[in-house]
Amino acid sequence: MTPSSTLASSIADVVDIELLRGERAPEGAAPDLLIEIPHGATRTADFTSVASRMESPLPDGLADFFHVNTDAGAPELALATARRFLALDPSRSVVLLRCRIPRTFMDCNRRIDASAEDFKAGKVTPGLMPWVTAPADRALLRARYEAYVGAVRSAVAATMPSGAMLMLHTYAPRDVDVQVDEHIVTSLRRAYQPEVEPTWPLRPEIDLIGRDLGGVSHLPSAVADSLRSGMAAAGVTVGDGATYPLHPSTLAWDHATAWPGRTLCMEVRRDLVADPFDPFTEMRIGEAKVARLAGPLAEALRRWW
């Protein structure tokens, strides 16, 4: 069996998988680059298709939390980066994995069995949201989670050890500190009032998530340095774990520790890709904004070879 044939296929409502090959990429060769978008359910339809199946009583207006909390722009930036990467080196291939499970219900970058204390220590939202209470809902989401994680494992196995992995996220411009509970929508609407939103801390335009709780960096230094240099030329600043640590409650931790120097996890501020940034709607993603970031990112990713 050729390496690329071990890739899982797309699964409706779970994961979109796309393999892109450069013009000179060997047929059947292992992918050189895996780009995972764990929070890729960014369309309102992604939310409503799951919400309509839930037996659990959901908070009113939960779609507002969906839009605030999902990684708008990450799928578009991933695709643009992959295409730019292949234009720079047509002998390579890239596999894209986009999760279609809304993290409003189940976060596919989490250890589902981690404790609430683990998630708080990692400054991350929980894996299974507290409003998912019906056993049938939990079973449905758990099954989709396992299917997604299995697809990622297959892609990682096909890509490593000679390839590399980018875990791509976007986050809201400001660090809005609200409790994730049944009052989440009310809390968010209050936090985003025009007179309140500017009081929250502004996040880095890009943040590389590679430092663990002890401050040890798991970033590939040459790639990170190239990214900082390239983004600086584009007028974009790059932080080093300023927002939250690389934490064992996340599956990103598994990839980074299993493949030292072969993974990069990063956050991009949504106002850098959204046109405009609007927290409570399905955002329009600006093509020019995405292109501005995709070029330096693709250039940096080449440093692995």
CATH architecture: 3-Layer(aba) Sandwich
CATH 4th-level superfamily: Zn-dependent exopeptidases
The counted number of beta strands is 7
Strand order, sheet with most strands: 1-3-2-4-7-5-6
Number of helical regions: 9
In CATH, what is the class?
A: Alpha Beta
Q: Gyration radius, to the nearest Å?
A: 19 Å
- Could you give the order of the helices and strands? EEHHHEHHEHEHEHEH
The dominant shape is globular
Number of domains: 1
* Average of pLDDT: 93
The share of residues in helices is 25-40%
Q: Assign the CATH topology.
A: Aminopeptidase
Strand proportion: 5-15%
Query: Termini distance?
Result: 25 Å
Q: How can the largest sheet be summarized?
A: 7 strands, mixed
Give the structural class.
alpha/beta
Low-confidence stretches: 1-5
Spell out the blueprint of helices and strands.
Blueprint: E1 15-21, E2 33-37, H1 44-51, H2 62-69, H3 74-88, E3 93-99, H4 116-121, H5 135-159, E4 164-171, H6 184-191, E5 206-208, H7 221-233, E6 238-240, H8 251-258, E7 263-269, H9 287-301
Helix pairs in contact: 2-6, 3-9, 7-9
Describe this structure in words.
With 305 residues, this protein is α/β, with parallel strands linked by helices. The chain has helices spanning 44-51, 62-69, 74-88, 116-121, 135-159, 184-191, 221-233, 251-258, 287-301, and strands at residues 15-21, 33-37, 93-99, 164-171, 206-208, 238-240, 263-269. It contains nine helices and seven strands; from the N terminus they run ββαααβααβαβαβαβα. α7 (221-233) runs antiparallel to α9. The longest helix is centred in the middle third of the chain and has 25 residues, at 135-159. Mean pLDDT is 93; it is low at 1-5.
